[in-house]
Description:
The protein is of the alpha+beta class. It has a domain at 597-714: Golgi alpha-mannosidase II (Immunoglobulin-like), CATH 2.60.40. The chain has 15 helices and 33 strands. The strands form nine sheets. An eight-stranded parallel β-barrel has the order 14-15-18-19-22-23-24-25. Strands 26-27-28-33-30-31 form a six-stranded antiparallel sheet. α9 packs across α10 (436-442). The longest helix is centred in the last third of the chain and has 20 residues, at 510-529. The radius of gyration is 28 Å and the shape is elongated.
Amino acid sequence: xxxxxxxxxxxxxGRNWPLGATWSRESTNFAVYAPLAxxxxxxxxxxxxxxxxxxxxxxxLGIWHCAVPDLPAGTRYGxxxxxxxxxxxxxxxxxxxxxxxPYATAVAGDLxxxxxxxxxxxAHPELRSDLDSAPYTARSVVVDPAFDxxxxxxxxxxxxxxxxxxxxxxKGMTALHDRVPEHLRGTYAGLATPAVTDYLHDLGVTAVELxxxxxxxxxxxxxxxxxxxxxxxxxxxFFAPHNAYSSSGDRGQQVREFKEMVKAFHRAGIEVIxxxxxxxxxxxxxxxxxxxxxxxxxxxxxxxVVDPDPLADPEPDTYWDVTGCGNTVDASRxxxxxxxxxxxxxxxxxxxxxxxxxxxxxxxxxxxxxxxxGSHLMTAIGxxxxxxxxxxxxxxxxxSMDGYRVGEFxxxxxxxxxxxxxxxxxxxxxxxxGVRTVATRLAGSSDLYADDGRxxxxxxxxxxxxxxxxxxxxxxYEHKHNEANGEHNRDGTDNNRSWNCGVxxxxxxxxxxxxxxxxxxxxxxxxxxxxxxxxxTAGDERGRTQGGNNNAYGQDNxxxxxxxxxxxxxxxxxxITKTALRLRRDHPxxxxxxxxxxxxxxxxxxxxxxxxxxxxxEMTPADWHDDGxxxxxxxxxxxxxxxxxxxxEQLRDSSFVIWLNASSDDVEVRLPENAWxxxxxxxxxxxxxxPIGTPVSTGGTLVQQSRxxxxxxxxx
Length: 716
C-alpha cells in the first residue's frame, strides 16, 4: 500500500521487465536497474509538482520494481536511491537527488544549474550533499505509446548507392522558415510540413540525418556563460525525443509529434537517420551533476582509469575519458550494452527510424581500454535481426590517438570519411601534390574500403558537417572567428583547409563573390558525383554562413539557423547542387555499387573508368606524379555498367566525362577519341564559357575556365 497525506493507494509487486515505465489502462509497471542500492523510491508528481513517494520493496536481478494501478498517461515521475557513498569505489548513492529513469520514453522540464544538482557538497566535495535536487531537475513521463502509423509499417531500406544524406538540426532547419507556421518553427512538427519535405524531395535528398534528438541538457559551465548546447551532443535520455523540439507539450506529446514527423518524411520518400551519442552522458566527469546513471549505478555505466577491486584499497575517483566530455560509457558491461541495444531497437521498432549515425563510435568499441572492432557492441549489433538491416554509420574515431579507425569498421557499417573531406578541400584550394589522391577519393576510396570486401558506398563522403565551417565560410574565411563562444577563440579546430579567395570574411567585391560561389559549386558537384554516399549539410546549398564560427555548438540563434530569405542566398549554388543530384539519381553510371577496375566490363568494350590528361590521352604513371597538374578528366563508361540491375540484368547508361580544373589558369582540354563515344553535350557546368547544352565532339577541344567543373554526357 502507498500512503501519502491521508491518501492510500494500492501498489502491486509488478515485474522486473521491461525496464522503464510500461503503461496500460490497468496499471503502469515501473522497473529500474540499481543493483548495489540498499533502498529505492518511486517518486510521482501531480500538476502542482507535489511529490509522492513509494518505497520499492521488490528487488530481483538488480532491478527494483512495482506496478501502480490506474495511473494516467502523462504522469511525471523519478527515482531516489540510497546506498553507500564512496566515490572512490564508484558508489554515489544519494536519496536527496531525484533521478531520471534511463528508460523513460519522454522527459518533462529542463535542468537548472544549482548546487543541489550535484551529489557532493559543492563547498566540501568530500561530503555527500543533502540538498534536494527535485526543484532543479527534469521529470520522467509515463507515456501511452498508441499511435496510428496509417500503413507506415514496412521499412524503406533504400539501397546505400541510391542514398543522399542531408544533415540537419531539428530547430535550426525551420526556426527562420517563413513558410512554416510560426508556432511550429523549430519543432518536429515544423519539419513535417510540406515546406520542408517538398523542398528536400525536390533537391534530391533521400535521407535526413538529424543532429541529436535524444533528450539532452546543456553543460552547467555553458549555461553559466549564457549559452546552451545547441547541437545536442550531451544526451541523457536515450529513449526520449528531446522535449524542447515539441510544439505540443512535454507530457508525452513529443513522442506522438516525433512519430508524425517520421511518417511525413516517409510519405515524401525520405528516410530518417538519427545522430546518436551513446559514448558519454550529460553527467560529465566526477565533478558533474548527478542526474540519472551516476546515482543508480555509477560503477557499472562509466569506465574508470583503473577498475576498482572491491577488496583492494580504493583508487582515485578518476573517470577514463576518450570522448572529451568527462566520461565514457562502458559498453562492455552487460547493463550498459543492454541499454544501448534496447534504445536502438526502440527507435527502430516503435519510432520507425531508418538508421543511426554513431558519434565517436570508437569509444564504444573498447574491450578493457583497447579498441576492439569485434567487441560486444559490434558483435551484438551485427547479429541482431533488426539492427543489422538498418543504416549504420560510424564516426570512426574518438578523442584519443588510438581511436582513429577510418576504413576499419566491418560490414554492415559505413563510415564518415574525413579523408575524402580533407582531400577534396585541399584539391580545390590548390594544396595537393597533383591529382592522384583526389582521383582515389572520387572513385570511392578503394585504398580504405576495397581490401576487406566492402563496396564504394562504405564511404560517406562529405566536405562539411555541423562541426566546422559551413560551405560558404569554407570559401570565405581562412581563420576561425569563434569569439561569440566565450572561449577567447581558443575552441574549434585550426585545421580548416579553407581558402578565402583573397579577402577574409564577407565582401562587396564582385570578382571575389563570383569566385567564392564558383568554388562552393565546385565542391558541391564534386561531392554529389563522387562514388560513395554524399552527405550535404543543411543550408550549404543556399550559402548559409556562420560568420566564420567553426564551432557553433552553443549558438542557438541565427548564427546557426538556416536563413530562408532569398536576399543573400546563393541560389545559383542551389540550382547546380540540384542538377548534380538529379544526374546522380537518373544515371546509375554515376552511383555504382562495384569498384571500378580500369578495364572493360565486357570483352571489346571501353574501360569502365579512365583518367584523362588535359591533352586527351590517358594518364600515365609520370602524370600521376606530376605535382604541378591540377586538371583531370574522369571518364565513366555507361555501356555496359559493371553493377547489375535489381534482377541481375546488364545495365546500360550514357557515358560521362567529368572535368575538374583546380588550376588558377584556364586550361584547354582535348576530348579523347575512341570507338565508343563520338559526341556529347555539357549537362552541368560551373564554367560560364561552357553552359549547359553546349555540344562537344571527340577529338575537339574545350577551354575550361580556371577553378571550374564541366560534366559531359554522351549523346547517341
